[in-house]
Amino acid sequence: MIKQKIKVLVVDDSALIRSLLSKIINQQPDMVAVDAAPDPFIAREMVKTHDPDVMTLDIEMPRMDGIEFLDKLMKLHPMPVVMVSTLTERGAEVTMRAMELGAVDFVTKPKLDIQAGMTEYAQDITDKIRAAALAKHRIKRRISSQQTSPVRAPVVASLGSQFASTEKLIMIGASTGGTEAIREVLMGFPPDSPGIMITQHMPAGFTKSFAERLDKVCKITVKEAQQGERVLPGHAYIAPGSHHLSLKRSGANYLCELSDGPPVNRHRPSVEVLFRSGAQVAGPNIVGIMLTGMGKDGAAAMRELRDAGAYNFAQDEASCVVFGMPREAIAAGAVHETLPLQEIARRVVEHLSRIGARTNRV
């Protein structure tokens, strides 16, 4: 049986970018660029004609920008979209808005004058197209659910335990679909939650905007991690897009450690690096959370966390955009509980409160 190729529609106002992306896609044995549109109005007709599996969508275009088109598309014809963004502060801010509207992932615009990195760029964008294709049916269900269901009130109950908030740490790993999954989880944590360290696969230049958007909607403080800063209760620290984030200890304090070392599992930042440091430094004081993402980054180190005494959660398949990373963690025997996304924060809070209550009785 011949496997059907992933049908990709390229939407970009630059003829050069359309040609480059179409060439990259057509060089892959499992995908084909069915067409390329210079603006959303033409793209709309091509969607009707080709019914593509995935769309790559430029943000800045004439007549109608990518965000406005994405908003309309997700309401009328939900489908996996990979945004193509400029590496600027505005580009980062708009890209985060696209993730909120339902885009699966994003890549930066290729640097056409630097051929040396083109092979790596091609692998990056085609990997994201494959991940988006896997999410096709879930995207339709998720967007439909968002449109018909009322917004859930976040879980913000106090932990009621000074032990839990000062000694425990929460570590979160995510990739494809993770920006919105992380937002949902963090909105469920109370202001006295333990310090939280997060690795989300994301390019340099975007994590600061991501952290700032989260900080506006969460009860905790969310920021991009800085070298050597203390991990405080009620704060979440996101790995910068260009650096691995790991945990260090100095006396009674937990600290953020940043490294620009080689990619691990092809990623920098890598979930493997974060989780392994937790196993080595804090063991039983860690609560690990694996969220949606393609691949296996972090699965082996999450098992190390469990073996070191940590308690681990994973997002279930039904609520994941891509179930790759949680599936690998579960297969590695690293996970204690597998839960729908909307239940993770509540269960983590219950787990920490129970530990705190037990400790206070001793």
TrEMBL record:
<dbReference type="GO" id="GO:0000156">
    <property type="term" value="F:phosphorelay response regulator activity"/>
</dbReference>
<feature type="domain" description="CheB-type methylesterase">
    <location>
        <begin position="163"/>
        <end position="355"/>
    </location>
</feature>
<dbReference type="Pfam" id="PF01339">
    <property type="entry name" value="CheB_methylest"/>
</dbReference>
<comment type="function">
    <text>Involved in chemotaxis. Part of a chemotaxis signal transduction system that modulates chemotaxis in response to various stimuli. Catalyzes the demethylation of specific methylglutamate residues introduced into the chemoreceptors (methyl-accepting chemotaxis proteins or MCP) by CheR. Also mediates the irreversible deamidation of specific glutamine residues to glutamic acid.</text>
</comment>
<keyword id="KW-0597">Phosphoprotein</keyword>
<feature type="modified residue" description="4-aspartylphosphate">
    <location>
        <position position="58"/>
    </location>
</feature>
<feature type="active site">
    <location>
        <position position="175"/>
    </location>
</feature>
<feature type="active site">
    <location>
        <position position="201"/>
    </location>
</feature>
<dbReference type="GO" id="GO:0008984">
    <property type="term" value="F:protein-glutamate methylesterase activity"/>
</dbReference>
<dbReference type="InterPro" id="IPR000673">
    <property type="entry name" value="Sig_transdc_resp-reg_Me-estase"/>
</dbReference>
<dbReference type="GO" id="GO:0006935">
    <property type="term" value="P:chemotaxis"/>
</dbReference>
<keyword id="KW-0378">Hydrolase</keyword>
<feature type="active site">
    <location>
        <position position="297"/>
    </location>
</feature>
<comment type="similarity">
    <text>Belongs to the CheB family.</text>
</comment>
<feature type="domain" description="Response regulatory">
    <location>
        <begin position="7"/>
        <end position="124"/>
    </location>
</feature>
<dbReference type="InterPro" id="IPR001789">
    <property type="entry name" value="Sig_transdc_resp-reg_receiver"/>
</dbReference>
<keyword id="KW-0963">Cytoplasm</keyword>
<dbReference type="InterPro" id="IPR035909">
    <property type="entry name" value="CheB_C"/>
</dbReference>
<protein>
    <recommendedName>
        <fullName>Protein-glutamate methylesterase/protein-glutamine glutaminase</fullName>
        <ecNumber>3.1.1.61</ecNumber>
        <ecNumber>3.5.1.44</ecNumber>
    </recommendedName>
</protein>
<dbReference type="GO" id="GO:0050568">
    <property type="term" value="F:protein-glutamine glutaminase activity"/>
</dbReference>
<dbReference type="InterPro" id="IPR008248">
    <property type="entry name" value="CheB-like"/>
</dbReference>
<dbReference type="Pfam" id="PF00072">
    <property type="entry name" value="Response_reg"/>
</dbReference>
<dbReference type="InterPro" id="IPR011006">
    <property type="entry name" value="CheY-like_superfamily"/>
</dbReference>
<keyword id="KW-0145">Chemotaxis</keyword>
<dbReference type="GO" id="GO:0005737">
    <property type="term" value="C:cytoplasm"/>
</dbReference>
